[in-house]
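Ticket #4471: structure export looks truncated?
Reporter: QA, pipeline team
Priority: medium

Steps to reproduce: submit the single chain below to the structure queue and open the exported record.
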Amino acid sequence: MKNYVITIARGFGSGGKEIATKLAEELQIPCYERQILTMASQMSGIDESEFVSVDEKLHGSYLTKLLKAVPYNTIIEPTEKDFVSDTNLYNIQAEIIRNLAKTEACIIVGKCADYVLRQYSNVICIYIEAPRHACVASIMNKMNVSEERAHYLIKKTDKYRSNYYKYYTGGKDWTNPINYDLVLNSNRIGREDCVNLIKEYINIKFK
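Actual output as written to the record:
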């Protein structure tokens, strides 16, 4: 298939972004993560910092948000008061993700992309995880932080991602293997072979 999308969800420290970047290089297709925030800003005219502040996070109390109305399904107009609400920022990003899936082959990291594209037949959804000790070692090495700080960052970031996913998918569990085509333990097989496995699966699914 010429136009396909690989979505990659990842535990913090599991190497998901590294795997996505390497896969994109080998497949010679773009990899989108932070770039989607820039594109959303350009499309909407909203300052990019607004998208960065809610990137896979929720403003305010998660429990408070659960008591609010179900998220909108469409982007609201700039004249409306909730134009820069979390929900509208999410919907703008989701629209960009859908447009990418219709127009080019690419890899999308995070952003609930597996859920946004759940009805698209040209999508492969991947979840990358690793044991806590491996994630801690990776974060310590990459960010030059203490073991205690690495544990804190993993717990905090994964909680953000989990709550964000649950909120915008109507309560679905971010780590549920049923959401994905492949769930890979990057510590057991190694990050390089995660890339190779995904490439093999692309050939199987889109042969």
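Status: closed, not a bug. The export was complete when the record was re-opened. Leaving a note from the reviewer for reference: The longest helix spans residues 147-168.
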